[in-house]
Design brief:
354 residues, mainly alpha, two-stranded antiparallel sheet
Length: 354
């Protein structure tokens, strides 16, 4: 692996993603693969949902250029196609939650047994030594993976948010792994594909005519890719970092997912019930616009990923990193609420009569 291999792979991943986005846009409108406004969906007009399909092709062709196909590559291809296929169908006709979860479980099992990637230990978060999962490794890997996949699915509530969150996590993974690791260069290749998609999804005026969404197909694919690459650098032969430090790389999506699940459960609702209690909803009620919300949440995730990297390179013990991450997670909703209330108060002072 090296820069000579990486640059062509990233370039191809970017170009292929952009090409598929352009090609699939009119086709999606023709066949009805669009996200229609209504209910909780406040966007204008029917928006094609083709980002997941385009990114899958970009990622796979780009990663293929990194070297000869291996068992891990074939497993990733099968699992990725499964998630995107089910996600695309769900984007079109709304499948039952059980069908989506079953597909996600199947994809994770393909990763575990096809690529031999699983969470054998969680590092030393409690200061008592490495905590091994032992016979519960497969079950725990399933739980963690499903949580991560759905965290990126649930955070995909405004333009550019899920893609930006995933891009930050992938950059952190690549920095830790380095260019001599297959997981490091693969992370950057996937990153290039996401950038190709964000050209059509970021909330700016010039892309309005070709604006597209990633849908469940794209968000679950991104969550799964991050799980795969994180396990690659935090477990097994190429382990270079503790799983505890990696929690910081996806802090905002995880905090958002767990906060919603806990709040809904405490209210006697199903955690899977859709709601308007995500972080971006709280900020929107505080008077923030879409770009401002994107800036706030992306900025927070950038800070959290930087803390994870500083902790890794600074040699901070797992117990310190986990304690900090836990305190931050428990207070994250309060932090978001405080930001929203402060902005609402600021706007009130700006518009009140002299």
């Amino acid at each position: 692996m090296g820069i000579q291999t990486l640059i062509p792979a990233m370039t191809v991943a970017f170009i292929v993603t952009v090409a598929f986005m352009l090609a699939l846009h009119p086709l999606a409108i023709k066949i009805g693969l669009v996200d229609r406004p209504g209910g909780r969906k406040r966007h204008d007009g029917n928006v094609p949902v083709v980002g997941g399909i385009a990114m899958l092709f970009g990622m796979m062709i780009g990663v293929y250029l990194l070297g000869p196909p291996t068992g891990g590559f074939i497993s990733a291809l099968i699992a990725g196609c499964l998630l995107v296929g089910i996600g695309a169908i769900d984007d079109g006709v709304s499948l039952p939650a059980t069908t989506r979860v079953t597909a996600q479980i199947a994809a994770v099992l393909i990763m575990i047994f096809g690529a031999q990637l699983q969470l054998a230990d969680i590092g030393d978060p409690f200061g008592i030594g490495i905590t091994s999962m032992g016979r519960f490794s497969v079950i725990f890997t399933l739980i963690v993976s499903l949580t991560m996949i759905n965290a990126y699915n649930l955070v995909d509530g405004i333009d550019g948010l899920a893609g930006s969150m995933a891009a930050i996590a992938l950059l952190a993974i690549a920095i830790v792994a380095g260019l001599n690791s297959v997981f490091g260069v693969a992370a950057l290749t996937v990153f290039a594909s996401i950038i190709g998609f964000l050209l059509f999804n970021y909330p700016v005026g010039w892309n309005r005519s070709v604006r597209s969404f990633m849908g469940d197909a794209g968000s679950t694919l991104l969550g799964f890719a991050i799980v795969w690459l994180t396990l690659g650098i935090a477990q097994g032969a190429e382990r270079v970092i503790s799983p505890v430090h990696c929690l910081w790389f996806a802090g905002v999506p995880i905090f958002d997912c767990l906060t919603c699940f806990v709040r809904r459960s405490l209210k006697g609702k199903s955690p899977l019930t859709p709601g308007r209690d995500h972080f971006h909803h709280v900020l929107k009620r505080g008077g923030f616009g879409v770009r401002q919300i994107l800036g706030v949440l992306t900025g927070l995730q950038f800070v959290y990923a930087s803390i994870g990297l500083l902790g890794f390179f600074g040699g901070l013990p797992d117990i310190v990193m986990f304690a900090g991450w836990s305190v931050l997670g428990l207070s994250q909703y309060w932090i978001i609420q405080t930001i929203a209330k402060s902005h609402r108060l600021y706007r009130w002072h700006q518009v009140r009569p002299a």
